[in-house]
Design brief:
- The strands form four sheets. The protein has a six-stranded antiparallel beta sheet, with helices on both faces. A five-stranded antiparallel beta sheet has the order 12-16-15-14-13.
- The protein folds into three domains: about 100 residues, Phosphorylase Kinase, domain 1 (2-Layer Sandwich), CATH 3.30.200.20; about 170 residues, Orthogonal Bundle (Transferase(Phosphotransferase), domain 1), CATH 1.10.510.10; about 100 residues, Kinase associated domain 1, KA1 (TATA-Binding Protein).
- Helix 7 runs antiparallel to helix 9.
- With about 425 residues, the protein is of the alpha+beta class.
């Protein structure tokens, strides 16, 4: 595994300012506790992307591995015009890279900080926000940190929801039917989260959408105080006043969004039927496709897909074929190595080597094969996955009972020629 990581690290330094030979890094767009976001250009297409670089050391130190994996999993299942799209995930020895859709217009926060929006413009962005959040909820995803800083604008000034780092999925709901993790930004947090008795993910998102709508229309927060506990008390009691320019229909909608009782708080379906919301509303139609973390060169059904580099960097199995064995157990061992050979060449070589010891292919699936020999005593699976345009990762899993010596002395040495040797730097 260390060979894989060292090789990925060497690839990062192929050229100054280049990442994996695919992206040319540009200026720093933003910086947080765990990540930095850069503007970058796809060298092949010339298209702009945003690259979020996360420190692996900080992830491990903060025990956030599961957190990052969940963010990747959530973003990979979302494909909507008003949600920032995740194109792919890559990694080096020290960093995890999210390659994201680039929102040229920046944060909505910077725009509203200069002054409140008109009611019509507030409505336009709220309609786009509800479309995106309703889509998330229909797929079992709850954002839990909606605020103007996490709402971006593209080159056409359309809204894009981003930062799913605090998101939850239906699988996290406890037997009581509620979520229990305390999270969110203080001024946008729902009262039921403060009560610490559990909450529904869709209801807290509706509350935060209400805060966002209030801010767009008013130019300031509905609940605010230098003393955090005083602010929490206001949130818990639902004490706020709409500015005098707020129309009666908008005020009524805000009161339903900022209802302290989650059971009676307005839902997405009810919002879409609301008279104020429906003014000028056009249902957003789009063609949804299955989203995978893959390289842009391959199609969805191709075996030529890039390995999820996060799996490598977190030392977990990204190409686990143990399920192909009838009875996977501790008698199965595995190893990985990098190769510059074509996947077809590698599998042909493996098959050729196997024949010398009467080990034959019994099952093929894409770039994976299962082999057996020695009257069924020896079983081996070989899987090849794309790492970069030039390199692949080969994973071999094998049975060990009674045949380990055959592997070490006869089969393994014949595969050494496939292992990639990095150019000498001396």
């Amino acid at each position: 595994m260390s060979d894989v990581i060292e090789e990925i690290q060497s690839l990062e330094a192929e050229a100054p300012g280049h990442l994996f030979g695919k992206y040319e890094l540009g200026k720093l767009l933003g910086c947080g506790a765990f990540a930095k976001v850069y503007h970058a250009r796809n060298i092949r297409t010339g298209h702009s992307v945003a690259i979020k670089a996360v420190s692996k050391q900080k992830v491990l130190k903060g025990n956030l591995t599961a957190h990052i994996k969940r963010e990747i999993s959530i973003m990979s299942r979302l494909n909507h015009p008003h949600i920032v799209r995740l194109h792919e995930v890559m990694a080096t020895k020290t960093k995890i890279y999210f390659v994201l859709e680039f929102a040229k217009g920046g944060e909505l926060f910077t725009k509203v900080a200069k002054g409140r929006f008109s009611e019509d413009l507030s409505r336009r962005y709220f309609q786009q926000l509800i479309s995106a959040i309703g889509y998330c909820h229909s797929r079992g995803v709850f954002h839990r940190d909606l605020k103007p800083e996490n709402l971006l604008l593209d080159e056409n000034w359309n809204l894009k929801v981003t930062d799913f780092g605090l998101s939850a999925v239906t699988e996290q709901i406890r037997p009581d039917g509620l979520l229990h993790t305390l999270c969110g930004t203080p001024a946008y947090v729902a009262p039921e989260i403060l009560a610490k008795k559990g909450y529904q993910g869709d209801k807290v998102d509706m509350w935060s959408c209400g805060i966002v709508l209030f801010v767009l229309n008013a130019g300031y927060l509905p609940f605010n105080d230098p003393n955090l506990m005083v602010m929490y008390r206001k949130i818990y009691k639902g004490e706020f006043r709409c500015p005098k320019w707020t129309s009666p229909d908008l005020k009524r909608l805000l009161c339903r969004l900022l209802d302290t009782n989650p059971e009676t708080r307005i839902s997405v379906d009810e919002i879409v039927s609301d008279p104020w919301f429906r003014k000028g509303y056009k249902e957003i139609k789009f063609h949804e496709e299955h989203l995978e973390l893959k390289d842009h060169h391959g199609d969805e059904n191709s075996a030529d897909k890039y390995l999820n580099a996060f799996d490598i960097i977190s030392y977990s199995s990204g190409a686990n074929l143990s399920g192909m064995f009838k009875k996977p157990d501790n008698s199965v061992k595995g190893e990985r190595f990098i190769s510059a050979e074509a996947p077809e060449t590698i599998l042909a070589k493996v098959e050729e080597v196997g024949k010398t010891e009467n080990v034959a292919v019994v099952k093929k699936q894409g770039w994976s094969v299962k082999m057996e020999g020695q009257n069924g005593k020896f079983q081996m699976t070989v899987s090849v996955q794309r790492l970069t345009e030039k390199l692949v990762v080969v994973e071999i899993k094998r049975s060990t009972v009674g045949v380990e010596q055959m592997w070490k002395d006869k089969l393994r040495p014949q595969l050494n020629s496939l292992i990639y040797q990095p150019p000498s730097t001396s």
